[in-house]
Amino acid sequence: MEALLATAIAVLTACGVFLILRARTFPVLLGLTLLSYAVNLFLFASGRLHLDAPPLIRAGASYTDPLPQALVLTAIVIGFGMTGYLAMLALRALAESGDDHVDAGKDS
Fold it and tell me: Does 58 fall in a domain?
């Protein structure tokens, strides 16, 4: 299971970096979103989830660390807000420049 999770994180990171290096704004936005998903999975996996663990902590029982789960929940909310902001910023840049290249302001 760990190998599958590590592979998923690696694929999301590789696809995110590949899309960030594109010259258009929408793939860059999609790449940033994929990178945030990869970071969320990494943070969630760092919590060492235990299967069939009791929901209440008893003496000597193993339990899942709640801090990574809280961090991922916060990161999801912040990531959603930033994605919305960047989408509006990209639409505004497209409306003003008429082009969706990342470097549309530079003289070629």
Answer: no
pLDDT in tens, 20-60: 999 888 999 999 999 999 999 998 888 776 667 666 677 77
Report the distance separating Cα 76 and Cα 61, nearest Å: 30
Beta-carbon contacts of residue 36 (< 8 Å; ≥ 6 apart): 75, 79, 82, 83
Q: Is residue 107 a part of any domain in this protein?
A: no
pLDDT tens string 51-87: 676 666 777 766 777 788 888 999 999 999 999 999 9
Does pTM surpass 0.90?
no
**Assigned domain for 89 exists:** yes
Which range of residues forms the domain containing residue 86? Answer: 2-50+63-97
- For the chain, give the number of residues: 108
The vertex-20 CA angle with 71 and 12, nearest 5°, equals 50
